[in-house]
Design a protein that fits this description.
Blueprint (H helix, E strand, L loop, with lengths): L1 H21 L3 E4 L5 H5 L6 E4 L2 E8 L6 H17 L8 E9 L3 H18 L6 E7 L9 E8 L17
Parallel strand pairs: 4-5
Antiparallel strand pairs: 1-2, 2-3, 3-6, 4-6
Length: 167
């Protein structure tokens, strides 16, 4: 009986330690220059849960033109991803927020984003939702972008999406 109880105890302990090793961990990170976001504004620029990476909104805030500002935001996204060993190829979803008063202005302000997006995502495009808004937290930023990535998912992407035939 004692031997049976000891065996059951060891089995339960082994199962419990196995569960503890499989539980996801959550890391809060900030690339160089973004530490104030965490300490002063109280948000995490990068959160990693297992292989899932969440990049908080990055304002298009540096540059002389809207296109340059957008390119800077995408470059910052690359730096954010690099803090956890991910790349732009690992990005599975984007959300962008654009300052615009109406549909026509929205279409105009999204044009530089489309151009820069094509530079960073040549194929195997992430899911993307673009939202118009009246204001962003960063004054003067024409847009803000956030992303989600799965580390390693860009290694062997697959896209079996036929091109529509032109009529």
């Amino acid at each position: 009986m004692r031997r049976l109880c000891l065996s059951l105890f060891l089995i339960c302990a082994a199962i419990e330690s196995g569960h503890a090793q499989q539980e996801p961990t959550r890391e809060h990170l900030a690339p160089s220059g973004w530490e104030d976001s965490y300490h002063d504004i109280h948000y995490s620029p990068v959160v990693r849960i297992g292989d899932r990476v969440i990049i908080s909104g990055i304002p298009a805030a540096v540059g002389d033109t809207d296109e340059a500002k957008v390119r800077w935001a995408f470059q910052q996204m690359q730096a954010h991803l690099a803090t956890v060993g991910a790349t732009m190829a690992d990005v599975v979803e984007l959300q962008s927020f654009h300052v615009a008063r109406d549909h026509e202005e929205f279409r105009r302000v999204v044009e530089p984003v489309l151009k820069v997006h094509r530079e960073f995502f040549k194929d195997h495009y992430p899911a993307w939702t673009a939202v118009g808004t009246t204001a962003l937290f960063s004054k003067g930023a024409p847009m803000e972008i956030r992303a989600e990535a799965i580390i390693g998912s860009g290694a062997r992407p697959k896209a079996d999406i036929a091109k529509p035939k032109k009529q």
